Sequence to fold (176 residues):
Amino acid sequence: MLKDQPFLNAMLINILLGAVWHYITFIICITVDTSFFDAGKKMYLPHKWERNGKFYSDILKINRWKDFLPQHIGKDGFSKDHLDDTSVPYLDEFIMETCRAEWNHTANCIFAVVLFIINDLTIAFLLTMILMALNLPFALIQRYNRFRLQRFRAAMIKKAERTALKAEKSRTGNKL
Fold:
């Protein structure tokens, strides 16, 4: 399709198509039911090779560079910059938002298929490298943060259970 176009025309068309693709994936993200972004779904579960997030810190050294990347927060959006609360409902929402952001960036990467269909190999490869550089790091950060949040959530639930048990013991005066 764009193989016969002059380089600048092809680049402009690719940029326009990419912008439309990104806009559509963003609209899907904000309109689809949040149950689609359930961290228990197979696509969001950790893979064995991720070693529950250790791959990202040990191999990719994600802690060294993740805070230098920007984050998008829409109007009334959810900031993933830091924890504002440690309640389980808040952590559940935060975990869901990491799934939403991961899906968005991963869906954007799928645009590479379109690039290879409509362009010659050189342009498709160049644009795919740019596409991946602009999306993959963000998807990886979401996975890394989700695994950490899930461990923290489990610890908060255990802490709440211990507190409730202590309160019950002191209320009843029994040694449970």
Remarks:
- The two ends are 73 Å apart (CA to CA).
- The mean pLDDT is 91.
